[in-house]
Design brief:
By secondary structure, the chain is α/β, with parallel strands linked by helices. The chain contains 18 helices and 5 strands. It folds into 3 domains: 171 residues, P-loop containing nucleotide triphosphate hydrolases (Rossmann fold, 3-Layer(aba) Sandwich), CATH 3.40.50; 63 residues, Helicase, Ruva Protein, domain 3, CATH 1.10.8; 135 residues, Zinc Finger, Delta Prime, domain 3 (Up-down Bundle). Strands 2-3-4-1-5 form a 5-stranded parallel β-sheet, covered by helices on one side. Helix 5 links the parallel strand 2 and strand 3. Zinc ion (ZN) binds next to helix 4. Belongs to the DnaX/STICHEL family. Its EC number is 2.7.7.7. This is DNA polymerase III subunit gamma/tau.
């Protein structure tokens, strides 16, 4: 079974990185302040459907409503991840069931008392797909629901939600995970799987997953599937993720710091010859410059989770950052950022990479003098 399905959270405490939502919902559950219509919005794969199911489980636990469902009553067992479900909790995918007839059917079912639980709960996924006519059929029951009915709408597209629904629900916004929250989730999953993963693999997987827990767990899943007896190593993961080798970026940064044009052009040659994506190289270099900028401003950025690299890289990167003045790094990053879009679909990426290199290296490269005067000295020598 796919990792992201195997490890679906079963309680709000297990939902990672959505405290802005799970904390107030838990408080409301424990205080018995129950609303009759909720709206969970946010990016794909961040825990909306999982949280809607957790909400249903928390509301209908025999010991509940509670933020800590007992896990052993009939309702908790049937609503656990992978459980059979029960008659009182209905999930409807509005992407495929969004018409008037579907909504009428749902409305009619809402007026029946629950079969065995406290509440009859309707989870309506992709709720922005409900048609206007469909929602009109539902409007009255959402507006004045019977005491025992709760609606939980979920959507990736809050702007497309009918205002009539939005205004009648309490909205809880989900968001993409921060790298440090994601690392926690990955480490927990790796431990549960009894797998071994090199620390340097995490930042690559986190960056490839783009902040979505589901996408990130899928990537981890694929990589773990191919891991040998040594576990998941950097050397195994990097080519699969198509990420430029850290040492290549290290060399590029060193060449930039030294203003060494020959070294930089040789590096470009090696990148192109190795068949790596030139755009990828430029993107990864830009990411590194960004990390160095942050490290210059916040010396403990790695520990603070602002820069997602393994702890053992922190010192090397701090040294890299110290080789530039602040103005120089800012100039390099913004020049690279401007060049980057030109690489998309270019017929001669090599040429463009070389022009990019020439532009980056056209600035004189003063080594950072210690102290703030050194940083300012750099400013005057830059042709901006
Ligand atoms: N915040 C989270 N904490 C832990 N795991 C998560 C979280 N968000 C997502 N996941 C993982 O991703 C899987 C999919 O999450 P879920 O279906 O809840 O996302 P969703 O927001 O409803 O996505 P979609 O918008 O595509 O419907 C879960 O089974 C779980 O493994
Ligand atoms: Mg969903
Ligand atoms: Zn229970």
């Amino acid at each position: 079974m796919a990792l992201y399905r195997k490890y679906r959270p079963a309680t709000f405490a297990e939902v990672v990185g959505q405290e802005q939502v799970t904390r107030p919902l838990s408080t409301a559950l424990d205080a018995g302040r129950i609303n009759h219509a909720y709206l969970f919005s946010g990016p794909r794969g961040c825990g909306k459907t999982s949280s809607a199911r957790i909400m249903a489980r928390s509301l209908n636990c025999e010991q509940g409503p509670t933020s800590t469902p007992c896990g052993v009553c009939d309702s908790c067992v049937s609503l656990a991840p992978g459980g059979p479900g029960n008659l009182d909790v209905t999930e409807l995918d509005a992407a495929s069931h969004n018409g008037v007839d579907d909504m009428r059917d749902l409305r009619d079912r809402a007026y029946f008392a629950p079969a065995e639980s406290r509440y009859r709960i309707f989870i309506i996924d992709e709720a922005h797909m409900i048609s206007n006519a469909g929602f009109n059929a539902l409007l009255k029951v959402v507006e004045e629901p019977p005491e025992h009915v709760i609606f939980i709408f979920a959507t990736t597209e809050l702007e497309k939600m009918l205002p009539t629904i939005r205004s009648r629900t309490h909205n809880y916004p989900f968001r993409l995970l921060t790298p440090s929250a994601m690392k926690g989730l990955l480490q927990r999953t790796v431990a549960a799987e009894g797998a071994t993963v090199e620390d340097s693999v995490y930042p690559m997987v986190i960056s490839a997953g783009g902040g979505s827990p589901r996408d990130t767990l899928s990537i981890l899943d694929q990589l773990l599937a191919g891991a040998g007896p040594d576990g998941l190593t950097y050397d195994l993961a990097r080519p699969l993720l198509g990420i430029t080798d850290i040492s290549v970026i290290d060399d590029a940064v060193a060449a930039l710091a030294a203003g060494d044009k020959a070294a930089f052009f040789q590096l470009i040659d090696a990148v192109v010859e190795s068949g790596e994506e030139p755009r990828r190289f430029a993107t990864d270099l830009l990411d590194r410059l960004r990390d160095l900028l942050v490290l210059q401003a916040v010396p403990d950025a790695v520990a603070a989770g602002l820069v997602a690299v393994p702890e053992d890289r922190a010192e090397a990167m701090t040294n890299e950052a110290a080789a530039f003045s602040n103005a120089q790094l800012a100039h390099l990053a913004s020049a690279l950022n401007e060049e980057l879009p030109k690489l998309r679909g270019a017929s001669s990426p090599r040429l463009l990479l070389e022009i990019m290199g020439a532009r980056l290296l056209s600035a004189p490269a003063p080594a950072a003098a210690p102290g703030p005067s050194g940083a300012t000295a750099g400013v005057h020598r830059l042709p901006i």
